[in-house]
């Protein structure tokens, strides 16, 4: 591995001190004079037609300035996630609806002088509804008598033929799948069902829209992509994008919750243009639960094996519940099917699936976008196959693993990439040794507490990956992956980065500074990054798919290399030598032959500017030509109380190949966070609805997640590889850790007491039912 001066250290985030002192401004902290507050009236019904809205009494409340309904918004079917190529993005929603399709859907919006006045107005708006039957789950929405949830939708600009609430399908075959199944020695057909967890970031969605009185609006919002947000708002309002300037703001967590505009941004922009006054809107915690979450899926896997463990055929059939609207712009069914087929090497593959509407809140791409669902199914089947074939689960995975040089589906079948780095083999061995793999119970468990023989201990394994972005070797017609950056030198020898990639709290912006410092030869503290906006930064795709470092880092590397070249050329003029005779380190230029002879970089820059040589500045745009997997391995140790069904996670060993580690603090934080989110997915997290479609746990008091006291010790093992397509050899890490955690825990539960849970989460009730069925 290359030796670096800056990269790889535990660099402090540049905003760390501001966060620690409570001085960092998030969108919810922003205030401007003469500001109005927006509140949204939401439907109490899961499926209904709004027959009439009477807002007369509400308009009489002191402080109420404006109230809008469906009649007042542009009749434009809108996209809400500008990630995909426009021609394939689904458009199926208006800013406010006449046909409301889930509890919490948007009926009217109020702008008032105070939050209290806006909330009082909501109480006074009278709405007449025609209540319709609803479909809240897979079974009811696919039933012959299911209600029609959507009458119209567009895919790009073309009408979508929606039949039986199905709006997207796929069926692709590679090889001769049926023949391979006929010739297999073992065929496993298994059904899995996943849950609907919520990203639950601490920061709630907020937006501030400030009009300038001349038809232009400045927008600050919790967004994972300000250029995408600008496109979304412009599309839904029928505005030129030049009339909108979206500003980057630090995020207090995201995990997919802020990947698309959730209507409040677009509604506030419209109200700002109507009233001519600044508008601020902020979702309540319950509204957060009504606007995002991981897609529940039904996954049917059919996998064929030879006696030696080689996989010969795989058919993945996926049914994806997208909720009431296709918020994601494209269904996650395509992603889940692609990830399922990319877990292991197999010559005969088939993916089939469908995406369906239900009368539940619309969902989003929550940390993994189809991969946690796919990995849950595949790694559960692999564990069962290893047991049936009497092969060590580690060896079964090793013999079928994709290797360097193999191709895979990066984000569905349209995104094809080649693996160029893979540290999985080393991670499997290192993590197995660390966890004590030889002590597992082989389905019978061990007894850690002699006085409590009903508590059984098990060790489980799962491996996974996630892509670093969405790049493909050839431009694809599915998903956008483009990044841009500007790097300029200041007169004092410091550097400034101008880009728009969102930092969701993981430290991406500090990593960009370390890349520039490393390449140019500056001190870390001499590189600064501006929050920026859509007017002064180049287009960058949203921070998703673990592309924040890998994708957005690539143009920064190119800019830094260009800036260094320019500085060296100026230095050669000043020192009267060749460019090969000088170097830069710690913000100082010096002669290679005699390092004592040198000048601060600031002197070089100032001399060049004052001499009329120009400015040192560079801009680059990059379309990544790969989306290399960052590979992960999870070993979980659990205790299962066979009397109560309670599962305690005793210990986790987490292994990760993120390529070059650019900032170890950031990488380790992402690994622990991924374990936390995956453990919640495995054991407890789900959004529960009443039979009328009301969310029953849309508050933190009712929606259970692991606290810091519930978290097990996490031992982190990294395997540094060199990814030739990444910035200084780096890959992503943000999402890949979460994906294998749930199956690792489920496999550990099986190791402890011999039962398998096919449906997430693995609750005590399900465990007790499975134990009872096993005994019977």
From TrEMBL:
Q: Name one Pfam family in it.
A: MoCoBD_1
Domain of life from the UniProt record: Bacteria
Native organism: Synergistes jonesii
Q: Which GO terms describe its molecular function?
A: iron ion binding; oxidoreductase activity
Coiled-coil positions are: none
Where would I find the Aldehyde oxidase/xanthine dehydrogenase a/b hammerhead domain in this sequence? 21-133
Name of protein:
Aldehyde oxidase/xanthine dehydrogenase a/b hammerhead domain-containing protein
- Alphabetized InterPro entries for the sequence: Ald_Oxase/Xan_DH_a/b, Ald_Oxase/Xan_DH_a/b_sf, Ald_Oxase/xanthine_DH-like, AldOxase/xan_DH_MoCoBD1, AldOxase/xan_DH_MoCoBD2, AldOxase/xan_DH_Mopterin-bd_sf
């Amino acid at each position: 591995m290359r030796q670096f001066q800056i990269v790889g250290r535990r660099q402090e985030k540049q905003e760390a001190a501001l966060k620690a002192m409570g001085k960092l401004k998030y969108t919810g902290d922003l205030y401007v004079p003469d500001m109005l507050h927006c509140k949204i009236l939401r439907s109490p019904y899961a499926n209904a037609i709004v027959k009439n809205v009477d807002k007369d009494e509400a308009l009489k409340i002191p402080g109420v300035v404006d109230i809008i309904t469906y009649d007042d918004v542009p009749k434009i079917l809108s996209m809400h996630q500008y990630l995909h190529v426009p021609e394939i993005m689904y458009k199926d929603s208006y800013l406010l609806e006449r046909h409301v399709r889930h509890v919490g859907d948007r009926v009217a919006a109020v702008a008032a002088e105070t939050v209290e006045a806006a909330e009082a107005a909501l109480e006074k708006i009278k709405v007449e509804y025609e209540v319709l039957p609803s479909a809240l789950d897979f079974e009811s929405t696919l039933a012959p008598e299911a209600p029609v949830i959507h009458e119209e939708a567009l895919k790009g600009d073309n009408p979508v033929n929606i039949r039986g609430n199905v709006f997207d399908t796929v069926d692709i075959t590679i090889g001769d799948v049926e023949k391979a199944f006929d010739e297999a020695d073992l065929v496993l057909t298994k059904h899995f069902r996943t849950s609907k967890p919520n990203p639950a970031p601490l920061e709630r969605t907020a937006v501030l829209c400030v009009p300038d009185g001349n038809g232009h609006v400045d927008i600050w919002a919790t967004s994972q992509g300000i250029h995408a947000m600008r496109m979304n708002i412009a599309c839904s309002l029928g505005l030129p994008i030049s009339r909108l300037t979206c500003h980057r703001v630090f995020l207090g967590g995201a995990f997919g919750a802020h990947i698309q505009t959730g209507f409040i941004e677009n509604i506030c922009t419209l109200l700002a243009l109507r009233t001519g006054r600044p508008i601020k809107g902020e979702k309540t915690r319950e509204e957060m639960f009504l606007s995002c979450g991981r897609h529940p899926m039904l996954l049917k896997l059919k996998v064929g094996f030879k006696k030696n463990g080689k996989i010969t055929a795989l058919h993945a059939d996926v049914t994806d519940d997208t909720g009431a609207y296709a918020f994601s712009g494209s269904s996650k069914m395509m992603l889940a099917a692609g990830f399922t087929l990319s877990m292991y090497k197999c010559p005969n593959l088939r993916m089939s699936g469908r995406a369906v509407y239900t009368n539940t809140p619309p969902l989003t791409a929550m940390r993994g976008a189809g991969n946690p669902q796919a990995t849950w199914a595949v790694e559960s089947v692999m564990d069962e196959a290893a047991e049936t074939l009497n092969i060590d689960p580690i060896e079964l995975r090793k013999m079928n693993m994709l290797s360097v040089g193999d191709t895979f589906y990066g984000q569905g079948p349209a995104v094809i990439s080649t693996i160029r780095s893979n540290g999985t083999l080393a991670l499997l061995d290192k993590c197995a040794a660390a966890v004590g793999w030889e002590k597992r119970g082989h389905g019978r468990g061990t007894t850690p507490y002699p006085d409590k023989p009903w508590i059984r201990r098990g060790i489980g394994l799962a491996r996974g990956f996630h892509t670093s972005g969405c790049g493909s070797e050839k431009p694809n017609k599915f998903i956008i992956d483009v990044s841009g950056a500007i790097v300029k030198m200041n007169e004092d020898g410091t550097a400034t980065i101008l880009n728009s990639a969102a930092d969701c709290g993981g430290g991406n912006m500090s990593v960009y500074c370390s890349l520039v410092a490393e390449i140019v030869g500056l001190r870390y503290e001499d590189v600064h990054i501006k929050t920026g906006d859509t007017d002064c930064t180049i287009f960058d795709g949203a921070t998703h798919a673990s592309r924040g470092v890998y994708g957005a880092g690539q143009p920064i590397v190119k800019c830094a290399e260009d800036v260094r070249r320019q500085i060296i050329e100026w230095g050669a003029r000043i020192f009267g030598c060749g460019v090969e005779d000088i170097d830069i380190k710690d913000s100082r230029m010096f002669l290679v032959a005699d390092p004592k002879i040198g000048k601060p970089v600031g002197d070089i820059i100032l001399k060049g500017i004052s001499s009329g040589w120009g400015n040192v500045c560079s801009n680059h745009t990059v379309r990544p030509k790969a989306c290399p997997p960052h590979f992960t391995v999870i070993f979980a140790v659990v205790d299962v109380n066979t009397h109560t069904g309670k599962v305690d996670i005793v210990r986790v060993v987490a292994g990760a190949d993120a390529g070059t580690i650019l900032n170890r603090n950031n990488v380790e934080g992402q690994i622990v966070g991924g374990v936390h989110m995956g453990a919640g997915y495995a054991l407890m997290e789900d959004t529960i609805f009443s039979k009328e479609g009301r969310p029953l746990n849309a508050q933190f008091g009712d929606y259970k997640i692991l606290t810091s006291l519930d978290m097990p010790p996490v031992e982190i093992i990294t395997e540094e590889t060199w990814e030739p397509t990444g910035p200084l050899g780096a890959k992503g890490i943000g999402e890949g850790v979460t994906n294998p955690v749930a199956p690792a825990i489920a496999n550990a539960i099986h190791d402890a007491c011999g039962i398998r849970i096919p449906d997430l989460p693995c609750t005590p009730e399900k465990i007790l039912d499975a134990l009872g069925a096993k005994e019977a």
